[in-house]
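Whiteboard transcription, Tuesday session. T.W. wrote the structure tokens on the left side:
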């Protein structure tokens, strides 16, 4: 059940650096704070629990009993309203002095929004005054949406009239023929409030980990990037680099939506696309990445000198866009379309790139 405190702090998180300076004291795994208000007639008590949720009580200073009328929205008396308004003002002071604002309610929603900003440079836009928590992400070049982060009752996703509580979902565009299979996966539904033939809704409650969610974001971003020829590349060059699975686990490096540093010997620039060819026993192109930074010296990375070869002088930072199964673009496919085994970084052959763009997903 939503309380005054849970509703107020829905878009805030405790700032543990500032809590004690503001006056909170640690008690076990919780933080406690109290303050008189309305000229000492009432006492507010707040508790920040281990999970970050906030609960509170308002006590009548004379009786030392909880003043419950402010919890009952059916009570509209002038005095009750004055106490409620004063308590709201006090909560605003606490939020400003000891919390930090966040755009979304669910933790994964904020993580995904952060990853989208990091990978694509796009901040969420909040275009609906009536629905202030709903946001869109759009291309800077053509202004098309590629993602919409919306609040919905989970019961509507499940197709029931029963209320199952509010959740946040990310609506993403997908190829029509893939949607029936995608919606068999836990956490993925036919789109809420958008064209169900072309869009899906991904619930952001950690049912899916960040990495597969970001791979779906990459698909949607690609499908909406061009004009009528959806999937058309807007800018940047394409490259292919080799990786030896015996020495480096690429999937583990990208786990949790992380980015990775990779040594750079070619003229790769920020915004380019890099495909990673995974060697024996896979012998296939298995990863598509976006270059977030290029030509960065060792001092500009978080790598240690003992982690690299002396010949590695500059690096690029990669974000994972899509993971392919090993049988989608194997060496045989590459050779059939102008490619070959990859032993060093190079530009992706145009014929191979065209074949990959036209191959079935």
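and on the right, the sequence the group agreed on:
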């Amino acid at each position: 059940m939503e309380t005054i405190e849970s509703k107020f702090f829905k878009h805030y998180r405790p700032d543990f650096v500032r809590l004690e300076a503001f006056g909170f004291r640690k008690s076990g795994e919780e933080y406690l704070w109290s303050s008189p208000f309305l000229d000492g007639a009432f006492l507010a008590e707040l508790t920040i629990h281990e999970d970050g949720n906030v609960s509170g009580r308002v006590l009548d200073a004379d009786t030392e009993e909880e003043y419950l009328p402010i919890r009952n929205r059916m009570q509209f008396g002038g005095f009750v309203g004055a106490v409620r308004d004063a308590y709201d003002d006090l909560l605003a002071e606490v939020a400003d002095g000891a919390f930090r604002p966040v755009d979304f309610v669910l933790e994964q929603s904020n993580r995904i929004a952060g990853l989208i900003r990091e990978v694509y440079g796009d901040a969420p836009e909040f275009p609906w005054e009536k629905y202030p928590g709903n946001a869109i992400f759009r291309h800077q070049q053509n202004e098309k949406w590629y993602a919409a982060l919306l609040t919905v009752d989970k019961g509507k996703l499940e197709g029931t009239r029963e209320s199952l509580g509010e959740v946040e979902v990310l609506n993403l565009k997908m190829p029509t023929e893939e949607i029936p299979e995608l919606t068999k996966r836990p956490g993925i539904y036919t789109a809420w409030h958008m064209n169900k033939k072309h869009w899906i809704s991904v619930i952001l409650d950690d049912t899916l980990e960040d990495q597969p969610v970001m791979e779906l974001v990459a698909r949607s971003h690609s499908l909406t990037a061009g004009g009528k020829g959806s999937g058309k590349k807007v800018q940047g060059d394409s490259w292919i680099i080799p990786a030896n699975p015996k020495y480096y686990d690429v999937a583990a490096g990208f786990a949790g939506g992380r980015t990775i540093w990779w040594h750079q010997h070619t003229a790769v620039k920020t915004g380019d696309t890099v495909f990673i060819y995974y060697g024996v026993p896979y012998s296939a192109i298995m990863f598509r990445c976006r270059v977030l930074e290029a030509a960065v010296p060792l001092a500009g990375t978080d790598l240690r000198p003992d982690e690299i070869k002396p010949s590695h002088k500059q690096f690029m930072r990669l974000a994972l866009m899509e993971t392919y199964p090993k049988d989608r673009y194997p060496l045989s496919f590459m050779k059939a379309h102008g490619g070959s085994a990859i032993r060093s970084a190079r530009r992706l052959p145009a014929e191979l790139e065209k074949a990959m763009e036209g191959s079935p997903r």
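Someone added at the bottom: The radius of gyration is 26 Å.
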